[in-house]
Amino acid sequence: MREFGEFAGQLVAERRTAPGDDLVSGLVAAGDELGIDERRLVTLVCGLVVAGHETTMTALGNAVVHLLTDGQAAWPGLAKDAEAAATAAEQLLRTIPLSEGRVLPGLIRRAVEDTEVGGVLIPAGSVVAVRTNSAGRDPEVFPPGDPDLFAPLASPSIAFGAGPHHCLGAWLARLELEPALHRLAARFPRLRAEFTPETIEWREGQMTRSPLRLPVSW
């Protein structure tokens, strides 16, 4: 993380002296105009890299694992059109967890006041871990069992959070994930796994979990 911060700091300094039409240059210009200090700018750049790349990479890798193993029957449907892929992406985001449950049990939140959830009192100041994966499979909201990937969600997914914690990059994640699934299936209709769930080497120890590599053939 220290190296990551140093990299972002150097990037901010470079864009300040030689600005371009990229996002970081825009952030630096806006930050200087608004008086945002250097530390906050660097933190923002780091956050954008993690939130805008790492999570989408994770979602795509985990989706492909499912689609080339248990979800093989859905592969041809992804190639039909972008709309079908968009529906499938929402179902995949809902049902396939991004989180690395052994390190972080869920989204970490702090209660700002006494709150009752499910008959349990959470005192103000308590830290709670929200298992959104479980919520996405709530049988009272979503049909139990394996989902029909091409069936629109009957209820909104909370894969991107909700309320004041709704992910600001949700639109970007969808913009990346939906065409990626559609074009991958259209370009490689006979894509097949040269791995099994038992042979996958996982990237672990962070907020998310994804395969380090996925050998395939076509």
TrEMBL record:
This is Cytochrome. GO terms for molecular function: heme binding; iron ion binding; monooxygenase activity; oxidoreductase activity, acting on paired donors, with incorporation or reduction of molecular oxygen. Keywords: Heme, Iron, Metal-binding, Monooxygenase, Oxidoreductase. Belongs to the cytochrome P450 family. Transmembrane segments: none annotated. The keyword Iron applies. It comes from the Bacteria. Pfam families: p450 (PF00067).
